[in-house]
Design goal:
Helix content is 41%, strand content 22%. It is of the alpha+beta class. The longest helix is centred in the first third of the chain and has 16 residues.
């Protein structure tokens, strides 16, 4: 197979990963043009040296390299029951007693009154809730602009080290940009070193104490 075909197939994959147009499916994913791939693979002799991309195509593992093992979307009241155990575990992490009823009532009020924005990560296929962020709207009088407070970020223990937290942070940044905000702000615990490293590795700037901000271009 020629290097030109190699590049064409690779570009098709990159398109699928970066697609921002309309026509997404119910999970918010772009339509995958498998016919594009099949057309080239039909003409590739089995003994032709291939790149890792082609080897993956032949083995039927396309999905593994075209999408992460989770999906991310804005939460609504329909997601309340999925959010409750995550939010309850988040509060327990911060040394609060477990109280699913309180968690359900609090989140239900925020969502029904449109007082916060919650983004939820779910596993592909099973739709198991993996993590969430909650953003509160605010304003800065000094710069006369909107800001978002990233108040809550939590990923279930079994879903950590899979890129869920980074993907949630990226969605928060996109939301801030889409709403004309000038920055995101957050505060984390003094001993939460893992979170501190995560924020600093994704562009957040540390200010006084354990406050961070992320400028939105």
């Amino acid at each position: 197979m020629s290097r030109t075909r190699d590049l064409l197939i690779t570009n098709q994959l990159l398109y699928q990963l970066s697609y921002n147009g309309k026509g997404r499916d119910s999970n918010g994913l772009p339509p995958f043009d498998q016919s594009f791939i099949d057309e080239f693979m039909r003409h590739a002799p089995e003994n032709t040296p291939t790149s890792p991309v082609h080897a993956t195509m032949r083995s039927g593992l396309t999905a593994e390299i075209t999408m992460p093992p989770f999906e991310i979307h804005y939460a609504s009241l329909d997601d309340l029951e999925a959010l409750v155990p995550l939010f309850d575990a988040y509060r327990v992490f911060y040394q609060q007693p477990s109280d699913p009823v309180l968690a359900r009532n609090f989140l239900g009020e925020r969502l029904s009154r449109h007082e916060s924005v919650i983004v939820l990560a779910r596993a592909h296929g099973t739709h198991q809730p993996l993590g969430f962020i909650q953003l509160y709207p605010a304003f800065s009088s000094v710069v006369a602009g909107r800001i978002w407070i990233l108040n809550d970020l939590f990923v279930a223990p079994q879903a950590r080290h899979q890129g869920v937290a980074r993907a949630l942070l990226q969605r928060a940044r996109k939301h801030a940009a889409a709403t004309g905000s000038i920055r995101l702000v957050l505060e984390t615990g003094e001993d939460n070193h893992i979170a501190q490293r995560l924020y600093e590795s994704t562009g957040w700037q540390r200010e006084a104490g354990f406050h961070y901000q992320l400028a939105v271009p």
